[in-house]
Amino acid sequence: MSQSGARGRLAPVSITFVASLGARLRDLELRTRPEHPDLTAALARRWEELPAHVKTRNQMLGRRTAGCEGTHGVFPRCNLACTPCYHSREANRVRTDGEHTVREVERQMAYLRAERGPGQNAQLIGGEVTLLEADDHAGALQAMIDHGRKPMSLSHGDFDYDYLQALALDPATGKPRFRHLSFAGHFDSMMYGRRGIKAPESEPALNPYRARFCEMFARLEREHGVTHYLAHNMTVTPANVDQVPQVIRDCREMGFRMFSFQPAAFIAAGCVRWRVSAPRLSPTSCTRSWMPTRSSPPGSCCAAASCRMSSRSARPRNACRPARTPWRIPTRTSSSPRAPSTRCSTPRRTCDCRSGCRSCSCR
Q1: DSSP 271
Q2: Is the pLDDT confidence value at 76 over 50?
Q3: How many of the other CB atoms lie within 10 Å of CB of 26?
Q4: What is the distance between the alpha carbons of residues 91 and 93, in angstroms, rounded to a whole number?
Q5: Half-sphere exposure of 349 (CA within 13 A, CB side)
Q6: What is the pLDDT of residues 208-217, one digit of tens each?
Q7: Which of 13, 81, 321, 330 has the most CB atoms around it within 10 Å of its CB?
């Protein structure tokens, strides 16, 4: 074989190798940039969309993040009944099988990747995510990861360790298919139907269930090395707003790394599911109910504030600053039309019509 002939056959291989090496180097250069070019462009677009009066020095939208993300309408089915729930009565009839779920998550994440760039946090939210089969749940999380998202599953936390283990481990090998899992557990006294406590009377009554939720993830990490990030969600109404400080004091050492409190969305004026007698919360009353005492542990002040208070120090200036406007839940007046109502003959604690009922007395 001549030297020129050998060179002639090796040349295509060399060109392919150089092209592959160049592509790898370009990919490495993009991955090691402080910010991906697609994300830079998405943040710039988001900043331009903001109204002028919110483009302040402390604004993170358009600088650090393009905003919150989450799946929408993919699997709205749920097996609990929450008084402030905003899902329609058809929610439990929507198709939620694995093929449909993964396909819709893929479609939505592809859109978010194109609009917002890579590296954004996104919630896998329904509905109750653990009503999906563990493999389908894992497939949806992987689809989010493949599109450059950092997924977090939103759950009511009423599932078993076997489900969590099946989600985290590859059924073929028994080894972890995820190195890290993020979950947000939603716990509040407005939720009915949880196993062991169908109708909680207060927020502290749910503490054993909050602790159980955290312990499952601690066990998963001990046994399989899968790390976790846990957030705590709680819907706030006039019925439980005064219990927010107690939730922080009781749960801050359980394993949650974030506590999130959302005011309930009042939907449909005159809706009979709103039974709270307090129609208005003023900034002053909120501040007083959330203000810690000198015996309170550090960081037990208003959940909306970022201050950390020492038990021996005075309250810092401007700490726990109240909202500028009162938080108000509309109430039906005598002149307002009464919403049509149906009566349920089943006692409230055992009623099964919660899958879609909106006006039944059992709610």
Answers
A1: -
A2: yes
A3: 10
A4: 5
A5: 7
A6: 999 999 999 9
A7: 81
Would you give the distance in Å from CA 44 to the centre of its chain?
Answer: 26
Q: Which of 177, 178, 176, 122 is nearest to 154 (CA)?
A: 122
CA distances for 49 relative to 45, 53, 66, angstroms? 6, 12, 11
Residue type, 131: L
* Under 8 Å between Cβ of 140 and 102: yes
Q: Which CATH class is domain 68-268?
A: alpha beta
Q: What is the pLDDT of residues 315-349, one digit of tens each?
A: 343 444 333 333 333 333 334 444 443 444 444 43
| Amino acid 261: pLDDT | 94
Q: Cα–Cα distance between 165 and 162 in angstroms, integer?
A: 5
Helix, strand, or coil here: 9?
A: helix
Task: Give the helix/strand (H/E) hosting 6.
Answer: helix 3-31
All structural domains of the chain with their residue ranges:
14-64, 68-268
Give the residue ranges of DSSP H helices in 32-178. Answer: 37-49, 98-116, 134-146, 161-168
Nearby residues of 273 by Cβ (< 8 Å), 6 or more positions away: 83, 358, 359, 363
Handedness of CA 212, 217, 221, 224 (dihedral sign): positive
Q: 344 and 357 in contact (C-beta within 8 Å)?
A: yes
Residue 135: burial class (beta carbons within 10 Å; 0-12, 13-18, 19+): middle
Helices (H), 235-344: 244-251, 283-290
pLDDT at 93: 81
How many whole angstroms separate alpha carbon 327 and alpha carbon 346?
Answer: 34
- Unique residue bearing structure tokens 């599932």: 159
Nearest to 146 by CA among 122, 126, 166: 122
- Which pLDDT band, with edges at 50, 70 and 90, does 233 fall under? very high
Report the alpha-carbon distance of residue 328 to residue 349 in Å, rounded.
29
DSSP state of 128: -
Burial of 100 (C-beta count, 10 Å sphere; 0-12/13-18/19+): middle
| Alpha carbon distance 139, 316 (integer Å) | 48
The CA radius of gyration of the chain, in Å to the nearest whole number, is 25
